[in-house]
Amino acid sequence: MMSSRKFFVGGNWKMNGDKKSVGELITSLNRAKVPPNTEVVCAPPSIYLDFVCQKLDQKICVAAQNCYKVAKGAFTGEISPAMIKDCGATWVILGHSERRYVFGESDELIGQKVAHALAEGLGVIACIGEKLDEREAGITEKVVFDQTKAIADNLKDWSKVVLAYEPIWAIGTGKIATPQQAQEVHEKLQSWLKTHVSEPVSRAIRIVYGGSVTGANCKELASQADVDGFLVGGASLKPEFLDIIQAKK
Ligand code: PGA
After folding, report:
1. pLDDT at residue 182 greater than cutoff 90
2. Would you name the residues annotated as active-site residues?
3. pLDDT at 172
4. What confidence tier does 40 reach under pLDDT thresholds 50, 70, 90?
5. How many CB atoms lie under 10 A from the CB of residue 232?
6. Cβ(66)–Cβ(117) below 8 Å
7. From ligand 1's centre to the CA of 42, what distance in Å?
8. Which of 41, 71, 134, 205 lies 20 to 30 A from 93 at CA?
9. Opening angle at CA 91, ends 246 and 124, nearest 5
């Protein structure tokens, strides 16, 4: 059966770019064709959110790469979902492995951020994924289920959540999960959601894959039954991102 889930392609620019290159990226994205069955969301560094929201064609949505768990206050260096929305962005990436492991964000904090961002009306790209030693120890499932549970415990409405499975050993390494490895985890996540959340949520939610996705490998990954899209890092800054947008055409 064809999936009714709209294919989702996110571009996570991470801490890259300057006004000039961001401007060029916008120009090329504005020329891109977005297939009707695909949703595209780009996540610039927060300092360029306003600029990107003003210049980027509306066929592509904008995400922040992170936010804090409350609306405002004495939290130096943080941004809130209210500010993200004020700039015109509609999504936020939360729980990215770089936030978890470079900046020490806990499952608990990520859960609270997800709850607040959704309460404020943002869509959330919630990231999970195992480290290499965890995969080698055979605990991939346990790790991704625990991370998903920490998110699930904080929400009732899943309609604006995209779950991004990003095995950490595949991020920025050029070492991609095989389509079978991605499919296997996506399928398990779906059945975990069926058991622990609900059948309709497990059928409706998009589970996207991230980690060394390129123009060359995207089509085969996209052909897997439960790969509903991608979260793309490095390749989202390159012309091949336009091919990745077409992966499911
Ligand atoms: P990558 O990053 O595509 O550069 O591996 C993916 C991500 O971190 O979302």
Report:
1. yes
2. 96, 166
3. 87
4. very high
5. 28
6. no
7. 13
8. 134
9. 95
Q: Is 102 a residue whose pLDDT tops 60?
A: yes
Which protein residue has the closest C-alpha to ligand 1 atom 9?
A: 233
Task: State the closest ligand 1 atom to the C-alpha of 236, by its place in the atom list counted from 1.
Answer: 3
61: tokens are 């949505």
Q: Whose C-alpha lies nearest to ligand 1, atom 2?
A: 233
Write down the domain spans for the chain.
Answer: 7-245
Put simply, whether the predicted model's pTM sits higher than 0.90 gets the answer: yes
Q: Is the pLDDT of residue 2 over 60?
A: no
One-letter amino acid for residue 212 of the chain: S
Residue nearest to atom 1 of ligand 1 (CA): 233
pLDDT tens, position by position, 192-204: 999 999 999 999 9
CATH class (in words) of the domain with range 7-245: alpha beta
Distance CA 123, CA 120 (A): 9
Which residue among 41, 65, 166 is best mutated to probe the pocket of ligand 1, counting the most ligand atoms within 8 A of its Cβ? 166
In percent, the amount of the chain with pLDDT more than 70 equals: 99
* DSSP 8-state secondary structure symbol assigned to residue 209: E
Q: Which amino acid belongs to residue 204?
A: A
Residue with tokens 């899209």: 229
- Ligand 1 neighbours, Cβ below 6 Å, are 12, 166, 171-172, 210-213, 231-235
